[in-house]
Amino acid sequence: MSGFCGCCSPLKPRFKRLVDDIFPPVAEDGLVKSKMETLTYYAATSPEKLDRIGEYLAYRIGRDISRQRQGFVLIGMEAMDALLKSCHAQSLNLYVESFLKTVQRLLESPEPELEILASESFLKFSQIEEDTPSYHRTYDFFVDRFSQMCHAENVEFQERLRTSGLLGLNGVIRKTVNEDLAENIWDPKHMDKIIPSLLYNIHTNKEEDSSSAALLESQTPSKMADQLLRELVKATSFSTIKSVLLPVLVHVDNHRLWEEHNQTRAVQVFEAIMYSIQPDLSYIVIDRLMGHLDTTSAAKKKSQIASVLAKIIGIGVGDSTVGPSVLEIINALLKHLKKQTNGNTGGGGAFYVQQYHHALLTALGEYVSRLPDFQMVEIMTFILSKVPSHEANASDQQLLQIMLKALYCVAEKYTSKYFTTTFSPQFLSPLLRILSSPDQEVRLMVLQILQTLVDRHDNLEKLSKPSLRPANLGLNGLSHKFNRADQMFTQKTLFHVYNTFKKVLEESNSNEVLEYMYTTVALLVMETSNSDDGTVYLLDLIVCIQNIASINLALSSENRFALHALAISLLALLASTVNIAELDAYVDRLIDARERRAIHMLPPFTEDYHPGLDPNTPDESLLIKEETIKEALTNAGKNLQKMDSLPRRQNSPHNYLWHENTIGDAQSRRVSTVSLISSGLDVDSTSSSPGIEKKPFNEEVSVAAFRKVLEGPTSKEKEEEEKIQKELKERFLNDSFDNILEFATEDSPPLHDALQNILNRVSLFSEAKKSDHDIYSIMKDPAPYEKIFPELFMY
């Protein structure tokens, strides 16, 4: 019966007759608009017939495809698109199945025009929102076919086919990305096709004439792919972003994009991802890139990946970037830096390892430069916590240098405002401890870090070399407002910093370290010049440097001369900051005297001094006089009362570091009783008492005296000695007893004084012996804390 109905038009169902009426006798005439309106009205008023209309349209279009009648195919697809837009969403589900079958049939056709038509229709379908998503619908075929079109090599239709393929992928992504019940587009089987297709078109730029306005206005496959990649990344979530990143990394590896000269294409991809991703997910991209470093052992490839990382790591980082993810990224960077200190160069050689370190340090600097200041302080403290406490081997030494370089990268990006915030005890104490390292390179890096953090008025370049005329350097910040935070830093911390500098200067240092030391101290002076405490501590440092240069025989002559030059350079800076005429005149006189008689005690530092110069016998008139400086400062109204209470060196050169002798040292060293009870010495010795002058020796100690002892008495002295002995002998032989008694008691002390002297010596000996006994008892006690803290107070 159906066969007869097909032959007789009046017997056909109405929906079929309405569909047939929209097709003209000749394809060139196009869709019959009036009939199309009738069909649309019928479909809208009879939604239960929509699925049959779709099936019949699909049948007609399939027949026309088989007969290669493209004109009628175009008309049929135009009708299907019109019905798709005009019908209600509730009745679309069944119609869509016919529509998708038709689109699939078009994509299976070998004709490029039909493939392009299919992608356009599918994109229109993706823009329609369905009230009830069809969770049984799959798009595997469309993903495969559109991805193939993105790689089309047809010379005539290449650009159009690739553009259509991208449009089709855009439609698939739009249709599925936000529908929970729809097929999961983030599945690896789909992403492994979509992502390479996008990246392939992004990196395939056909050379075009840029002067053509039409080409400029048209959207090329490269631009479309870039836009689609950004939309795809923007739609990702925490659970789906890794599905996008993995195929991206595989594509970049397979096409060796890391190895390009400037890595333009690799950077372009990751920049598109970083600019499009949600801000709270950007750290995942960085984490995946750093994780990708572990997939290769070649230092060259590591350096290339790290170089790309350095160029994109700062994107999306801002003041709102807070939380544990920040320290996770910093920690990961530090771990990668640490791995290369174990002697594993990955077969790439030291050159690529150095490049790798440089790229990671650059990445660290770029990342922290966009973080808020308070987080930078935390990061610097965190980096210092990774520094090895003991430099046991070369690996630890290298790790220390790497960590200091990382710290410098952060410090370089940090803007110091308040010293109390910048130099917290948790940060400053370990940094000063590292400064005591015997490695000159380590000392240079620590001083460089301090300079970067201290310099708030851009004086670093001006103070890079010691100068005797700092007033001519045009220094900034001399009249800056001294805030309370800086005042607290000066009072509580500055002396500790200078004290560490003293200990470092007691050891041998290169001229470069001494120049860095001058720059560091000079910058601290410029930032604390408005404080009397800063002036007191600086004067103490200057005098201590001069004492080290004068009496430290362990240092080389060159080092000691350089210390004299360092001291007078700092004194000149002190004079220029306090601006006291009396002090300026004294400094000028001292500099003039050294220029005439001791040029080697002035800057610049040098390695070649005249071998005849003796650092042990400097002219007293060429040395810095502490009392003269203190007098000039006091006359100008400076408060120097704290100077006398500083825990600093004794004026005697042998005791200039008395404050370093701890109680433990006293307990481990026995007190000498011989020196205490020896005749001719004062019991209240001042050799270890701060602030008290040591009594000078009565005998002359000079070269002439030593020569006299070695040569013995002269003949004249021998004759006089013999004459005295002869007279004494004759007196005892010939004089009376009364005369001899008077002679013997003439210069002796009274009996009472003699007895008192003997009793004092006995008492002193007893006290010394008791002191020794107490000291030894403390040393031998197996549990000394039980004496100091009774059990009642022990927990």
Query: What is the gyration radius calculated from CA atoms?
Result: 46 Å
First-to-last CA distance: 106 Å
**Helix count, DSSP H or I runs of 4 or more residues:** 36
Structural class category: mainly alpha
The fraction of residues assigned to DSSP E strands is under 5%
Overall outline: rod-shaped
What is the average per-residue confidence, as pLDDT, rounded to a whole number?
81
Total strands: the figure is: 0
Helix content: 55-70%
Q: For the report, how would you describe the main beta sheet?
A: none
Which stretches of 5+ consecutive residues score pLDDT under 50? Answer: 1-7, 206-217, 649-699, 768-795
3D architecture notes:
This protein is mainly alpha-helical and 795 residues long. Among the domains are: 498-660, no CATH class; 662-694 and 749-795, no CATH class; 697-740. Helix content is 63%, strand content 0%. Helix 12 (221-234) crosses helix 14, helix 14 (264-276) crosses helix 16 (299-312) and helix 24 runs parallel beside helix 26. The chain is rod-shaped. The model is unreliable at 1-7, 206-217, 649-699 and 768-795 (pLDDT under 50). This is Protein EFR3 homolog cmp44Elike [Nasonia vitripennis].
What is the topological layout?
Blueprint: H1 2-7, H2 14-21, H3 33-45, H4 50-66, H5 70-86, H6 92-108, H7 112-126, H8 140-150, H9 158-176, H10 188-202, H11 213-217, H12 221-234, H13 241-254, H14 264-276, H15 282-292, H16 299-312, H17 324-339, H18 349-368, H19 373-385, H20 394-413, H21 419-422, H22 425-435, H23 440-454, H24 484-505, H25 511-528, H26 532-551, H27 557-578, H28 581-597, H29 626-635, H30 663-667, H31 673-677, H32 703-711, H33 715-734, H34 737-744, H35 751-780, H36 785-788
